[in-house]
Amino acid sequence: MKTVPLTVEVLSLPGCPSVEETLRMAGEVVSIVVPSTEVQDIRLTEKEAAERGFPGSPTVLVNGRDIEGREAHASGVS
To answer: In whole angstroms, what is the distance from residue 35 CA to residue 30 CA?
Structure first.
């Protein structure tokens, strides 16, 4: 059976008060569940967030999917 690599990203906007705690918690979980995986810290500009339909800051994506089940919005940041 082929193993698919896991990607974990924490996306945030400048000044997000929760990003550091989210990065810490995501890192703790990943180190236990899939220790060979790195949590990527991705800081978006307001323009990048709007272009991506960013659902909110911070957002944790695992293999490109929001762990809270939120979908990107065409109108931008929520």
So the answer is: 6
